[in-house]
């Protein structure tokens, strides 16, 4: 993928296009939208743009909280992603 190749601008372009498609075709709290937000957050995290990463990770978490039971493993993953960004920030 472009992320693993270090081509973050290309990765963001595709991730944002996927999110735009999902916004047009799915309800705003659909779990697939959360996946797109998470992917964008991951790319920003890899770029060292932690405030952007947190913004997207938090959006993913908000969607998941609305759609999933509180003990769902995907919520743990979202929280872990956010924690990793704070860890990277020191």
What string, H for helix and E for strand, traces the elements in order? HHHHH
| Main sheet characteristics | none
Query: Which structural class fits the helix and strand makeup?
Result: mainly alpha
Tally of DSSP helical segments? 5
Give the SSE map.
Layout (H helix, E strand, L loop, with lengths): L1 H4 L2 H18 L5 H17 L2 H18 L5 H17 L1
Helix pairs in contact: 2-3, 3-4, 4-5
Verbal overview:
With 90 residues, this protein is mainly alpha-helical. Helix content is 82%, strand content 0%. It contains five helices and no strands. The protein has helices at residues 2-5, 8-25, 31-47, 50-67, 73-89. The longest helix is centred in the first third of the chain and has 18 residues, at 8-25. The protein is flat. The model has no long low-confidence stretch (mean pLDDT 95).
Gist?
The chain has five helices and no strands. It is an all-alpha fold.
């Amino acid at each position: 993928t472009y992320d693993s190749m270090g081509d973050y601008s290309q990765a963001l372009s595709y991730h944002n296009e996927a999110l735009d498609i999902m916004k047009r075709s799915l309800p705003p709290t659909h779990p697939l939208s959360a996946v797109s937000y998470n992917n964008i957050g991951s790319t920003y995290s890899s770029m060292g743009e932690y405030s952007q990463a947190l913004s997207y990770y938090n959006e993913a978490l908000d969607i998941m909280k609305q759609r999933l039971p509180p003990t769902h493993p995907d919520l743990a993953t979202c929280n872990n992603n956010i924690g990793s960004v704070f860890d990277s920030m020191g």
